[in-house]
Amino acid sequence: VELIASGGFRVPKSSEDHRIDDGWYGKGVYVSYDASYALPYSQGGRMICCAVVLGKCYHCRDRMDGHGLMEGFDSHFAESGKEYVLFDSAQIVPLFVLETTIPYEPLYPDQ
User: Fold this and answer.
1) CA gap 62, 41 in Å, rounded
2) What digits encode the pLDDT tens for the residues 78-102?
3) Which of 26, 35, 51, 67 has the smallest set of CB atoms within 10 Å of its CB?
4) C-alpha closest to that of 75 among 95, 94, 93, 89
5) Per residue in 21-79, pLDDT tens?
6) What 3-state DSSP class applies to 32?
7) Radius of gyration over alpha carbons of the chain, in Å?
């Protein structure tokens, strides 16, 4: 969290860059407008609130494991509508870190 907050986001270039998987809706940086949706992905209840520029979004109707940006689009959004995938770090500006004590079940407890 500290590295992202101070240096910005790094868009993954390969599968080794992704911490969890190849990216269900593309190989990029995942963001959500819904804090309750994002909280289980957080580290210790800390979330980075960001300003994002989505541009023209491609609606992913199915999984696109590790796929790059669809031609003619600037970002992807998941079929649920709660996840956006960005492929250029210039589209994401970290604003602040939000820390919460709300109880939650982490999706990836070993992160």
Assistant:
1) 21
2) 988 899 999 999 999 989 988 988 7
3) 51
4) 89
5) 678 899 899 999 998 888 888 878 888 899 999 999 999 999 998 889 999 999 999 98
6) coil
7) 14
Amino acid identity of residue 106, one-letter, is: P
| Contact in structure between 84 and 31 (CB atoms under 8 Å) | yes
Q: In whole angstroms, give the CA distance from residue 94 to residue 77.
A: 19
Neighbours of 25 (CB within 10 A): 23
Could you give the angle at the alpha carbon of 62 between the alpha carbons of 73 and 38, nearest 5°? 80
pTM, full prediction: 0.81
83 within 8 A of 60, measured Cβ to Cβ: no
